[in-house]
Amino acid sequence: MHKKTSALIFTLLVSLFASAQKNDVGVMILAHGAGAQWNQMVTDATKDIAAKYPTEIAFGMALPRTMQAAINNLEAKGAKKIVVVPLFISSHSFIIRQSEYLLGVREKLADEPMVMDHGPADASQSHGSSSGHGSGHGQAAAAEHSGHGSQSNSGGHDMHGQSSTLPKLTLHSEIKFTRPLDDNPLVAKILFERIQELSKEPSKELVVLVGHGPNGEEDNMKWVSDMESLAEQIRGLQKKAGKESKMILSMTVRDDADQAIYNQAKENLRNVVKQGSKQGAVIVVPVFLSSGSVEQKVAGRLEGLTYTWNGKTLLPDPKIAEFIRVSVEGALK
């Protein structure tokens, strides 16, 4: 056989093999979900990956119903391997740990089982998402991750949702579970740009990164640690640009913690902004996935104080679509 013909056949076989592997892969995006606008921002961020692989969005707080529907849909399309991308701000909450358990990545539940169900699905996504759900989170534990704000919902929301048992999901495919946003460099780049939009004299400015934060102290310490890692990365980007802030601090507001913890977090944030404004300008930047009422509550906490704020969240920004793509490609290596 001619060498050129052999090389052509080899190339064709490699291409067919790669195509077959690709057809075996599905992608499931985990996201909290809220109102139609919030959901649409997430859906828009998944369009690039959905053009390459069958993709489902399972909205909810580690919600078995929507996760199982997404799995069923992907497996019906031939998926033998499902890459799960948790589009949440932080790893450090029961939501990620419970999701890992439900998908068989974690052997045992690490926390009390919790099912926060908003009732029947009320929205479908353009590329076949298993479900969207109405907003509202009562005990807004899931906002720990997504950093979203949801509006009230009159239908079917189990406020506490504790269950004595929580069976794992039914799977016939291999699960690859990727990391949430945490301290990903792409998040740092978005926050750097958000700061740049508001900055006038960097050397005289205090920047305060504000995240939602979890209820537990151990999780909160880890959450803040990731935010401090983001702050270090932002400093590096600022140094390259010759626009270093005087200081960057990281804080959480912990909306859903006990009243005493909530009050302390509120007071800490107010004190930092109040004292910082006496020595120069203060820029407050929310570290939340998408816009809603929760990040606006940050501004409400700071009523009467002097600071700069535009409330812009991570979405919409094309780097979130890049984060999803990189997460999937990394899992498939």
Summarize it:
It contains eleven helices and seven strands.
Structure description:
The structure is a single chain. By secondary structure, the protein is an alpha/beta fold. It has two domains: 181 residues, no CATH class; 117 residues, no CATH class. 44% of the residues lie in helices and 13% in strands. It contains eleven helices and seven strands. It has a four-stranded parallel sheet with strand order 2-1-3-4, sandwiched between helices. It has a three-stranded parallel sheet with strand order 6-5-7, sandwiched between helices. Helix 7 packs antiparallel against helix 11. The longest helix is centred in the last third of the chain and has 25 residues.
Features:
four-stranded parallel beta sheet, 333 residues, three-stranded parallel beta sheet, alpha/beta, 11 helices, 7 strands, 2 domains, globular
